[in-house]
Amino acid sequence: MRNTHFYIYYFLVIFSFISCSSDPEYPESHYKTLELIDKYGSIVKGDWHRRYINDNQMLFEQLHLNGDSTMTGYVKWLARKKVSVEGKETWTDWDTIADDSLKGTWRLQWRNGTDYIIFITNVLKPHNITWTNQAELYYATNESLHIHSSISGKSVEYTRGTAEIDF
Fold first, then answer.
1. Secondary-structure breakdown of the chain: helix, strand, coil percentages, each rounded to the nearest 5
2. Which of 74, 72, 69, 4 is nearest to 37 (CA)?
3. Distance (Å) of CA 4 to CA 1, 9, 31, 70
4. Which run of H or E residues covers position 58?
5. Residue 141 CB coordination number (10 Å)
6. Nearest one of 68, 67, 51, 36 to 140, comparing CA atoms
7. Global confidence as pTM
8. pLDDT digits 0-9 by tens, 52-88
């Protein structure tokens, strides 16, 4: 009888440590993010560049998005103003706003409650200035990447590959 009680106690203790295993319950955003990574991850990785030139600004940006979610790049941004000199409007010389290497991280993430794809870059620039750009990724193809930047509030198009600065 004593052995019977021992075995019953033994099995109760053993079974108390064994629980039914089930897959963890993740929020919908987790699964949507995995879908986005599966759909766009391989397309978004690689080299991208863009140029923006108008009367008062010239911008060149080069990004390399690595498969390990690290990012490197370069940005050059010049600007000038229209001023009045002796009653005549003229442009100032070009001022360099940025001429920096970029280093940071990137990721694709679906945000709960929206249908947007979020393309996030965290950039550490020289002088330890960090900024985060959370951009809605409108679409990506093998040749172009279209986002809406949270920093500029504008739609931006990057082109696949590397390019030389022409200003």
1. 20, 50, 30
2. 69
3. 5, 9, 49, 61
4. strand 57-65
5. 10
6. 36
7. 0.74
8. 999 999 999 999 999 998 888 998 999 999 999 999 9
